[in-house]
Design goal:
293 residues; alpha+beta; 7-stranded mixed beta sheet
Length: 293
C-alpha cells in the first residue's frame, strides 16, 4: 500500500467510525441520547395488539379504537418514579379544563404500561386514581398492561407504531422514556402528538375535535423530548448538553473528515491529470521526430 493510499484509507475509516458514533449505527442504549419521539403522523396504529385491563381481562386495542371515538394514547407505567406522574397529572388537569367534551363519551384515553411485569391490579389502582381525579363519570380512561406478564411484544409494537423510543436506564434500572402521547383518529391513524407535561385545555379540545373528524395534523416540534432531560432535584427540564454537543461535534467532525477526503481526491485527480498530459506531450514529441533547421 502506497503512502497516499494509506492516508485515504485512514480518512475513510475515521469518517465511517465518526458517522457510526454520531448517528448511532453502533451504540448501546443511553437514556440521555436515545430517548425521544419519531413522529408518525398519518400512520396507522396496529389495532390487533392485545393487552389486559385492570380486571385481568384481555383487551384488543380495536375494542377501544373502534371507529367511533378518537383516542389519546400514551405510554407510561405505574411505578415510574418521576416523569409518568408529571405527565399524567398534567394531562388530567388539562382534560378537566376541556369544555364540552367528556372522556368516555366524546373520546377515550388509553395508557399502556412500558413495564411488561406490571400487574393488572397495579394498573387498576392507577386507573382508579386518574378517573377519580378527572371526576366526570367513569370508564373514560383505560390503563392497560401486557397480556402476559414478562411478555413485551405488543408493548414494543405499540411503541414502534407511535415512534416512541425508550429503554431501561442501566444505572437506575428504571424505564427512560419521553413524555409524549398521540391523538388517534377513530379509524386508527395518528393525527397529532402531545409533548411535555402541561397541556392547555383549549389546545386539547381543538386536537381532540380534529382527531374525531379524522383530520391529520402537521409535524410538531418535539425537540425538547430528545435534547432535554428532566432533573429530579431541580424539578425542571434542562438542555441535555451531552447530546447537543455530540450532535454538533459529530456533524463538525464529519464535515472536516469529508472535506479532507474531498481535498485529497481532488489533489490526486489533479496529479493524475497532470501525469496523463505529460505522457501525451511526450508521446507527441516522439512521434514528431527531430526538428531539422
Amino acid at each position: 500500500m502506497t503512502p497516499r493510499t494509506a492516508i485515504a484509507a485512514t480518512l475513510c475509516t475515521a469518517l465511517a467510525a465518526t458517522c457510526g458514533t454520531a448517528y448511532g449505527v453502533e451504540r448501546r442504549f443511553d437514556p440521555l441520547t436515545d430517548v425521544g419521539v419519531t413522529q408518525r403522523i398519518d400512520e396507522p396504529v396496529p389495532l390487533d395488539l392485545v393487552f389486559r385491563d385492570g380486571r385481568g381481562n384481555k383487551v384488543e386495542l380495536a375494542g377501544l379504537i373502534d371507529g367511533d371515538l378518537p383516542a389519546i394514547v400514551s405510554m407510561n407505567y405505574s411505578d415510574c418514579p418521576m416523569l409518568c406522574s408529571l405527565q399524567l397529572n398534567g394531562l388530567v388537569a388539562g382534560l378537566k379544563g376541556v369544555k364540552g367534551l367528556t372522556a368516555g363519551r366524546d373520546y377515550r384515553v388509553v395508557s399502556v404500561s412500558f413495564d411488561p411485569n406490571e400487574s393488572p391490579s397495579r394498573a387498576a389502582a392507577t386507573q382508579d386514581k386518574y378517573n377519580l381525579e378527572y371526576g366526570r363519570g367513569q370508564g373514560g380512561w383505560h390503563f392497560l398492561v401486557a397480556d402476559r406478564q414478562g411478555r413485551n411484544v405488543d408493548i414494543e409494537r405499540l411503541a414502534e407504531a407511535l415512534g416512541i423510543r425508550y429503554g431501561i436506564d442501566p444505572i437506575t434500572g428504571e424505564y427512560s422514556h419521553p413524555a409524549a402521547a398521540a391523538l388517534v383518529t377513530p379509524g386508527g391513524k395518528i393525527s397529532q402528538y402531545l409533548s411535555g407535561v402541561e397541556y392547555d385545555p383549549r389546545t386539547l379540545r381543538l386536537l381532540i375535535t380534529e382527531a374525531g373528524q379524522g383530520k391529520i395534523g402537521a409535524l410538531g416540534d418535539l425537540f425538547f423530548l430528545t435534547c432535554f432531560h428532566y432533573d429530579a432535584d431541580e424539578q425542571a427540564y434542562f438542555p441535555n448538553m451531552a447530546k447537543i454537543m455530540m450532535t454538533v461535534g459529530g456533524g463538525f467532525t464529519v464535515l472536516v473528515l469529508g472535506g479532507g477526503l474531498l481535498a485529497f481526491f481532488v489533489q490526486e485527480k489533479s496529479r493524475a491529470d497532470g501525469a496523463v498530459a505529460a505522457d501525451k506531450q511526450g508521446l507527441s514529441g516522439a512521434a514528431a521526430g527531430p526538428q531539422v533547421s
